[in-house]
Amino acid sequence: MTFLRFISVQFTCMAFDAFVTWMLLSQVGVPGLLGKTLSSLSTAAFAFLYLRRPGALASTGRFIVTSITLISLLVSYGIFTLLLLRNPMLQWPLALIAASAAALLLSLIGYSRAPRSSLER
């Protein structure tokens, strides 16, 4: 998988997570942590199905990219939760931006550390 395609997958997942979080928290009125939990679960399902569709990636690169994506989603959820629990006065959009930026940085580090032979197939 090329770097540009990997980044597009990560941005797609990050945008989907932000959109679902915004819909649940602002429009539906779900409490903050419950909304982010539901958003993270739906984004993980979206990422898993998106990366497992036929012709998406070669079979060996598929596992690594899916793992990196799901781990970065888990980190995003954890950072969002910790930010809101440790500082209740913090607004959720700022926590979402910080958590998404940290998860994107983690996914870039994971991509750079992944074995090249399995990603380029």
Describe the structure.
The chain is mainly alpha-helical and 121 residues long. The protein is built from 5 helices and no strands. The N and C termini lie close together (7 Å). The relative contact order is 0.16.
Oligomer type: single chain
* Proportion in helices: over 70%
**What's the end-to-end separation, in Å?**
7 Å
Contiguous low-pLDDT stretches (5 residues minimum) are none
In DSSP terms (H or I, runs of 4 or more residues), the helix count works out at 5
Mean pLDDT, as a whole number?
Answer: 88
Integer-rounded radius of gyration: 15 Å
SSE order: HHHHH
Protein topology:
Elements: H1 3-28, H2 32-52, H3 59-86, H4 92-113, H5 116-119
Helix pairs in contact: 1-2, 1-4, 2-3, 3-4
What keyword list fits this structure?
121 residues, 83% helix
Concise summary:
Helices cover 83% and strands 0% of the residues. The chain is mainly α and 121 residues long.
